[in-house]
Each structure stands twice: as structure tokens, then as C-alpha cells.
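tool_call: predict_structure(chain=1)
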Amino acid sequence: MSSTSTTPEVSWAQRSSATDPEKNFIYLTIAAPDVPKIDLDLKPTSLTFSGTSQTKETTYHLELEFYAEIDVENSKTHHTSRDVLLVLRKKDLKEEYWPRLVKEQKKLHFLKTDFDKWVDEDEQEGAPVDDLMGGMGGMGGMGGGMPDMGGDGGFGGIDFSKLGGGAGAGGMSDLGNMGGADEEDDDDDMPGLEDDDDADKGDKTEASSGKEKAEDAPAASSKIEEVP
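tool_result:
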């Protein structure tokens, strides 16, 4: 079965620092769903990606030449069933943002800003930073091909709601309604407690009345008359 070739959608954001390498990086997300195995070649100045989705009958291919160099050894990646997430550490420590992701100054239809992660350069000091660098697999020594990294392992305690992954807990509130429905059904099946109390009272009244009658009745004689 032949498959069509397409360029995957790529979204990106960045952070910068002149003193802390772990706060000087690029967020990069390659949207390539249902790709069990990928081929990712990451170099200091470029990235090449390819992977085939049998369900969508599509082969994804991407080539990027970065605006500046990255530190391949300290960059991270994670492959999920929906996309490939990368944190690419910038080689040069600078306060200034990269003006763009790629070297060539032209608009690419598949490249978009990741507004879920983006903060302005002058506002990043107070912005929260997800601990992606510590939770993702290393890129060091990859060389060329990249093995299958399916599954969600390796992300530790990352909050996916902040990553735009759509893995939030929406719909969980319905569990409370489910429990309430069961309780209402159980209540309908239970007999009324007031009826039981009335029945008990009636039994006790009859028993008390019978006891009083027994006390009022003359005692039977236990003496046996002698026959002459």
C-alpha cells in the first residue's frame, strides 16, 4: 500500500538565559500521529525527521536548519502516539531570544508558534518552567536513526494540561453523578423506616394488652380436693 508524503505541523516556543543553560532552550513539537517508529537525525545546526503512519497512509518528512547552534548532547526528546516532543538546548547563553527558529528568513506554512508555552522575552523571569529537561530521554550519541519510544514513560510528573496535550481530567466530574444515581436506586428499594416503627409499636401494644388480661384473670387453684 503506497502512502503520501507530507510535512508535519511543527510548533515551537523558547526560553533564554545568559547564566543558566537549563533555562536556555527551544520547545519543539512535531505533530506526527500514529507513527510507531521514527527516524530522527539531530545535529548542532539541523534536524531531519521521518516516520510513516500505516493507519493514515502517510509518511511524514521534515528538514529544519536552525537559526543558531544547539547542544545535541544536552537536548531531550519524547515520542508519544500523537507527536514528538523535543527540548533543544541552545549552545550560546544569551538573554536575547532567537528572532526565529530557522536560519532562512521566510514564512513556512507548517511552522507555528506554540502559544501554550510561549512567554515574551521580558516576562520569562516570572513564568513557570516545566521540568521537561529532567523528565525526557537524552539525545546524546544518537547519530542517526532513533528507536521506537512509544508510551508515556519518561515524563515524570509533568502537567500535561500545560503542554497542550489534551490529557486533562475533563469528564471526571461525571463519576460523582454516577455514585449519586446508585445511591438513589438503593434508597428506592429500601422499605420505609416509619412503617417498621409503627409495626413494632403495634406488636408491643398487643403484647402489653395480653399481659394485662393475664394478670386480671383469677388464678387457677392448685389445691386438689380429697375424695372421702
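agent: The first helix runs from residue 132 to 135. Proceeding to next step.
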